[in-house]
Amino acid sequence: MKQRKVVSMIGALAVMVGAVLMLTGCPDNPSEKPEYTKDEFTLKFKNESGQKCYIEIKGRSYAAGGIIGLQGWENSFDFPTVLKTEIPVGGEKTITVKDVVVSGKTSKLTYFYNPRFDILVIPESYAYTGKSVSFDSESKIQYTGGTFHIKLAGSKFELDYIN
After folding, report:
1. Which region is the signal sequence (predicted)?
2. Strand pairing partners for 94?
3. Residues 6 or more apart in contact with residue 128 via CB below 8 angstroms
4. Domains of the chain listed by start with CATH number
């Protein structure tokens, strides 16, 4: 009798453990991988410094709401660096930054990403000091509608954005 009771208890325990594992161990459907949308941003530069200089742009896109804590989602993406581009003295030049991630989407969720442009002004002459400035963009038109003005303040380059 005791042996039958022990066997029954072990059997009941095995059934309960199996039920718990079935309920918690098997999700309804496997996690869906997000599809990321990329866009390009065209930035306009005007060299008002009187000196020949170059622009280099690098940066990354960050999740707009902060950290995404879901499996399969990325929190940030580096975008390709736009290498040293000459901005002629007294002239204007547009530079296109390509493959900038702006959103991610699954069938149930959508997240938006904001790009941060790290712009480096590189002087041609060693008599001048370059400038590195970061610009966080919350929308596509935030920095694509105006002009980045390159100026000199003494021997240092300055970069201002005017919309």
Report:
1. 1-19
2. 44
3. 51, 53, 152, 155, 156, 157
4. 35-162 (2.60.40)
Angle ∠(39,132,124) on CA atoms, nearest 5: 105
Q: Per-residue pLDDT for 19 more than 70?
A: no
- Over range 12-34, report the average pLDDT: 62
Tell me the per-residue pLDDT of 47-64, one tens digit each, with 9 for 90 and over: 999 999 999 999 999 999
Instruction: Please give the model's pTM, rounded to 2 decimal places.
Output: 0.77
Got the DSSP string for 26-77? Answer: S-SSPPPPPEEEEEEEEEEEEE-SSS-EEEEEEEEEEETTS---STT--SEE
Q: Of 11-25, 29-43, 95-109, where does mean pLDDT reach its minimum? A: 11-25
Cβ-based neighbour number of residue 99 at 10 Å = 12
State how far Cα 138 lies from the chain centre: 11
For tokens 């901005």, the residue is: 87
First-to-last alpha carbon distance for the chain, in angstroms, is 89
100 within 8 A of 128, measured Cβ to Cβ? no
**Token pair in block for residue 120:** 């480096």
The H or E element that residue 126 is part of is none
34, 50, 67: which is closest to 149 by C-alpha? Answer: 50
